[in-house]
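Reagents: none. Just compute today. Protein HIR.
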Amino acid sequence: MRFTKPAWVMHKDSAMRGDEKRVSIFSCHVHPDGSRIATGGLDAKVRIWSTKPILNHASELSGRPPKSLSTLTMHTGPVLVVRWAHSGRWLASGSDDEIVMIWDLDPSAKGKVWGSDEVNVEGWKPLKRLVGHESDVTDVAWSPGDRYLASVGLDSAVLVWCGYTLERLRKIDQHQGFVKGVCWDPVGEFLATGSDDRSVRIWRTTDWELEAEVKKPFDHSPGTFFRRLSWSPDGAHITASNATNNEGYVFIAAVIARNSWTSEISLVGHENTVEVAAYNPHIFLRDPSQPVTAHNICSVVALGADDRAVSVWQTKAPRPMVVAKDVFERQIMDLSWSQDGLTLYAVSSDGTMAVFSFDSSEMEGIAPSSAQEQYLKRFGFVSPPVPEGYSHLASLQEQKAQQNNRITPPPSPRAHSQDFGSAANAAPGGEQVHTLVAKRKPKKRIQPTFAGSLSGQIPSSSVNGIKPPPSSSSGARAFQESSTVPISVPSTSALPLSISQPFGTSSSFGLGLNTGESDFAMDVDDEVRISSLDGGMQNPKGKRKAGEDFDDRTASRARTLGGDRVREPAVARPLTNRVPPPGPPGGGVWAEGSSLVGRLEPPQLVTYLKATVEGSEDVFEGRNAEGDEPNEVLYVSGKQTQWLDYLPSPILALTATATFCAVAMQDGTLTVYSHTGRRLMPPLAIGSQCCALTSAKSMLMLLTVSGQLYVWDVKKQAAKFPPTSISAILGSSPNLTVATATVRPNGAPVIQLSDGVAHSYDASLCVWTKLSEPWWSEGSDAWQGRQRSNNLAMRGPLTVLESAISERMSVDDGRAEKVRPTWWNAALTLGHLESKLHAAKALDSPAEYKQALLLYAKRIADEGFRGKAEELVKELFGPVYWRPGRDESWSPTMLNMPKRDLLKEVLNIFVRSKTLTKLGQDWQETLKKSQLDE
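Predicted 3D structure written out:
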């Protein structure tokens, strides 16, 4: 664990000039993508900080990205709570001024903060003031999926707001004292509040009536500034602060069980009242090798107390994992976990922040998010429907947006944190480059009336948020860039606002001050992109002041096809007025008679698709016309259209790499372009509609609805192998479908089926091979999740496949209870590792090959299988006097790794074993002699 206290994170007394006096920080909350943290303090301000300088000392020293991103100053009293929405799009803050404020990104609000020397690198505007409390707002919380927002205060009231319209839905005033804490059930069924009336009350979200009242642990609890409580991510427990045992002499945090609503468990050890409890957002597995079941899960919860100590507990252990004493000089006000579950932030009334960064080995056993979601579904709770009449309201706003030529899709209320930040083909272990995008109407500084005001109607961004596009911005990038294509899901996106990490490896753009312009000079580009704060000064290209002429800006640009056309924003909508072309007589490709009919579907036809080019911020866009206009593709670089092309048929899918761009059309045609718009290959008449289109480096893969698979090396303009049908792996089962389709940079296709089995086509064997399958998870000790390592192999393609299989097979199916034969684990482990060696070779993954080889050597050494050991040694050693060109049947390398270097490591394992010591020593001598002879 790494501990740090960034001195520059502070709220200052505005009355003190020169001498920067710290004032209390009451709240903190990390953005879902982990790139920012918001704090609220006694200075009546909300401050947003970059987390990279906090976590990375080199970044802190370099000043890139900027440490302070924004200062929000609309509150008139101390800010007692700040909470990001789960989508990451909005920030809610509650204050002493009785107001809950909802903040949204505003590109025009950058610049100096009014009345101070501070500078906003990012602009945030007050989207709406939520008025209703009659005293201080002490806590707020967003429900799962941002369906609701709850706020509590010193008026003893609990207010529930709609997370879509931000209108007040309910006022609960049954508490008899100040309400100082609120949290939501992760299932969405209940809301819990903690009050100075010495009770925790649980409310049903179906009718907002009281479900239960818990009083016993709080009978003797003293008064505290907050009573922040937290609900465990598995939905089983509430950990409530400010509880006591032994008639008030022992300070504890009470753990309240779901359904029974009793507190039989206490977290004991703090020497003063516990002020705040915060659960790690992840479910943890007691035994990572076992599936996610009620008996195999636990949680991690952090406590902050008035004894100035922070403790971190794992519910499977009777004692805390970590106890950090005297972290602050005064009591702890708030705690917040990062979304990855590895970083804990704490703030204190002494005006400082402390950060605890854990290693993944210290937080071992994090369950996959998909398994966590599946586990919560077992409670059987169905979320309530969207607000009545919302669809009508959404369509109205959409019409207004179209009339203003300003379509602004909303945030997805259910989007994961990574939906607001996707890496552009980041290398393993490398720093990701993210894009922060915000739309606004060109040439106008004043927002339309429906875009919201401090107390006006809800803006279009929030109204439209109820029904977001089918996929988010990052979802589209993952669809196109990672080359993993969910079947029958259109590779489209049109979210104009993607809040992501404010830093990256690229320095081509920045969010610093534009020194040559007035504070009120504004950009008039259709969109403002922030790819990195590391760059410092923002690139002035493509920017102008409000009074400058547009033609002057473009006069010096090189002529491009379509470059003089104003690029209009677009949104993805399903196309219902286009139908597939009729099939040829006799069936043809549109009416396949095979068993694959209905099992492979083309992507949904939508109005807008895009793919981000690997390693850059250039975008390849496709636009399908809704009327008689032609369909078109565009290549956009730096907000400037570099070229465009018109197509005779609607676009089904597109993809882009650093080498080429490709588009698949509804009529079965595939067109491949260079980055200048030149056709690299002739239009390819595939003869069947596209089911999946994906790419990697110079490789392009297409899977058709008829089951034919094509892979081309675009650079060589040649096919990797003849068209191949996937019917051999789909078989005759009507329920078996393709889950994902991927191509590797070496041209190996990877098809994962709905049953979890992953296949690849081996061109040399002319047959499909199995890369991995759930079968190995039933007994292999080498199955992903059982081996813990931080090396590159743990991030390779095979690990990704096994992780996906583990997530699919996470539901408990009773495998652990089956009686197995004596040699079950040994046989499956060896078989799995042997299969993994072949799979790593097929996928060109040397790190995973080496890892599997060494694990295999250790296992056969432990078991004493001399025959397998000798065979492995001979295969790696090869001919004793091998010379290039003499014996072509043996290659001296495996995936560019010398086989005899690998043999050295294998022999070292054998020498240390109890059963193969002599074998290892003999071959070590032989290896030394052969090297001397060479």
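The first helix runs from residue 52 to 55.
Action item: order primers for follow-up constructs.
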